[in-house]
Amino acid sequence: MRERNIRSSAETGSGSGGTGDEPVPFMQRLLDNHWLLLLLGVAIPAVLYVIWGVMEVAQIPLAQ
Amino acid sequence: MADATLFRTCPDTGLPVHLPAQRLIKANAVAGVLALALGGLQGLMVALTRWPDLQLLPAEAFYTMLTGHGLNVLLFWIIFFEVAILYFASAILLKSRLAAPNLAWVGFVLMAVGALTTNYAVFQGDSSVMFTSYVPMRASPLFYLGIILFAVGALIGCFIFFATLVIAKDEKTYEGSIPLVTFGALTAAIIAVFTIASGAIILIPTLLWSLDLIPEIDPLLYKVIWWAMGHSSQQINVSAHVAVWYCIAAMVLGAKPLSEKVSRMAFLMYILFLQIASAHHLLVEPGISSNWKIFNTSYALYLAVVGSMIHGLSVPGAVEAAQRRRGFTRGAFEWLRKAPWGNPAFAGMFTSLVYFGFLGGISGVVMGAEQLNLIMHNTLYVPGHFHATVVAGTTLAFMAITYLVVPLIWRREIMFPTLAKWQPYIFGLGAAGISLFMMGAGTLGVSRRHWDINFTDAALSFSYPDTAFLMMALNGLSGLLAAIGGVMFVVIVVSSILFGKKRGDDAAETNPVIGVGGGQAVASYGSEGTLKLPGTMILVGVFFIAFFLYYWVNWKYLSEVWPLS
Ligand code: HEM
Which residues of chain B make contact with A36, given a CB cutoff of 8 A? Predict the structure, then answer.
């Protein structure tokens, strides 16, 4: 995988993304994966805030 | 592949500038400034009405003006400008072409038509429902339609940004990781997608309800989902203005973040945890469990607060490190004393950072604690807090970067340089004043969104302490000061764009706006890699002491309103 072969600047400090053979650290790959970040940034608040919140409201008993 | 004829090379930064992106940046920035001019004027009228001795507007006009103010400044000004930032941080900083400029224009037109439609509805006078438009208050369908069109346009802007990241990667216009400023913009764009999706989920049914196509909308459900939009949009602002802070520090001083990794982790904390802070708007709502409230506003949110504290250390730290590299090494604070305080871009950035942290940040954490929230919920403390964040913080930061955008993107010199030097201080002081005095009045119990603090027609009389009246008068005076600063900004920017001296290619030498290495620092990856920053550490210490004392004082207040023994 191309990404695996690029030691980006977090590693090298150069900002140019060198071409060493060491694997790119997990956090670096996460931060460079913009689509995964988008997924996390939408899914986490959707579950913790919206879905959980809507469930709370839905559980309020209706007045008789 | 990119067509080279569609690029120019910026003589100041050395960066290639995609001309279609440049046109879109200009259009969005201008639309934003127009919204700010209108919304700022409305803010002044609101402030002068809340000054009890003046009470400028009659009651109905007050609520109409307040609705228009919230929409024009919080939504239209800030989001237009943010779209400009997204295009700048993607196409320009990545040295790439912007994806689908024609579609970006469609987005712009939708936003402009949406903003005009909503303003039209508000000015008709039958949609004074405040920008929160809580049901069962009902506005005209055009009110909701306008906001929905605006949001769709903004969503298009976000996806143009994502598509530009893909193009830049494919066409290898950069290597390794994107620059930090672009990463901050990415954070803002991700939060924007969640924000706009939540807005669509709640505002489309509300539009249908206003057309009588849906019988009712549950008010509590509305609040829960509306705030997923309403508050998350503030988190877009935070991410965008933090990116702007890094951007200005880099461009003006060639400053790099202390550690790229750590600053990126701080942005990651925003992506993961900042949006759930929306729950603090529902802290006093019955029917929702404390588990949901406390988890969302405390435990998880504090991780995002840690993110802000990291930026709060990293931005001044980067400035200090850059200044020390330039030779300002004497004592703890020579770097700060000899900072370019006469440069409105730098002055606006640094004061925005201080106001945002000390006024907005501390008050936000205090208000976000469920128990403390009880003593200030729905009082003027709330607008006090968010004028520190979105006015003294975001708006001032966006004003500051405009002083770079005009020479770099419009290629015009800033007109009235002396006025420009003073503008960030005057606006900042006014904005800090409205924040502080509204917070002061709120602490004394004065309600927000209330025309008459004398309760003239009320069946049961009530009077606030005299100090509350003093606070409201000081708030009015600060509003005047902020409005003067706002008018100065609009006059300087509009006249520079229209009549400013053209900036020739030699201006980079004769009248530089970018510091040595600024173009390189902003568009590439790299850290200062030092923590030998005595001045910043002292400032951070002062911040923590202020934070602790203020937090403690508020628990003390709470114990007085709510004696337990
Ligand atoms: C000249 C500058 C400004 C002045 C004098 C001003 C003043 C005020 C005042 C007095 C209120 C009313 C508080 C109340 O009665 O509840 C208010 C509300 C508000 N302001 Fe401003 N403001 C200014 C600029 C801004 C800017 C730049 C923003 C956003 C970026 C902003 C966002 C808001 C919002 C969202 C509200 C709440 C509206 C509502 O409760 O529905 N203001 N402002």
Answer: none
Interface size between A and B, measured as CB pairs under 8 A: 118
A46 vs B contacts (CB less than 8 Å): 194
The 8-class DSSP code of residue B464 comes to: -
Which A positions 18-47 lie with beta carbon below 8 A of chain B? 18, 27-28, 30-32, 34, 37-38, 40-42, 44-46
Residue closest via CA to ligand 1's atom 19 equals B70
The count of residues in chain A is 64
Residue B537 CA to ligand 1 centre (angstroms): 34
Let me know the angle formed at the C-alpha of B56 by B54 and B59, rounded to the nearest 5 degrees.
120
Q: Residue B4: its pLDDT value, please?
A: 78
CB within 8 Å: B295 and A40: no
Q: Which of B82-91, B386-395, B519-528 has the lowest mean pLDDT?
A: B519-528
Say what the pLDDT of residue B440 is: 96
| Å between A64 CA and nearest CA of chain B | 16
What is the CB-side half-sphere exposure of residue B488 using CA atoms within 13 A?
A: 25
The tokens for B379 are 């009082």
pLDDT at A3 over 80: no
| pLDDT tens per residue, range B510-547 | 888 888 888 888 888 878 888 889 999 999 999 999 99
B99 near B166, Cβ under 8 Å?
Answer: yes
User: Where are chain B's structural domains?
Assistant: 15-242+358-455+463-502
Give tens-digit pLDDT for B149-179: 999 999 999 999 999 999 999 999 998 899 9
Q: Is the ipTM of this complex over 0.95?
A: no
Return the structure tokens found at B397.
């930061």
B15-242+358-455+463-502 folds as Cytochrome C Oxidase; Chain A (1.20.210)
The packing angle between helices B232-253 and B396-405, to 10°, is 40
Angle between helices B232-253 and B219-230 (to 10 degrees): 10
Instruction: Kindly report the length of chain B.
Output: 565
**Residue B458: how many CB atoms within 10 A of its CB?**
9
Strands in B235-382 per DSSP E:
none
Helices (H), B326-395: 334-337, 344-355, 362-368, 370-373, 381-386
- Within B492-559, strands assigned E span none
B8 strand-pairing partners:
B17
Those residues whose C-beta lies under 8 Å from the C-beta of residue B169, and which sit 6 or more positions away, are: none
Residue B75 near residue B150 (C-beta atoms within 8 A): yes
Please give the Cα distance from B439 to B466 (Å, whole number): 15
Q: Which two tokens stand for residue B460?
A: 């049961």
Average pLDDT, integer, range B241-269: 95
CA of B503 to the centre of ligand 1 (A): 36
Phi, psi at B3, each rounded to 5°: -85, 115
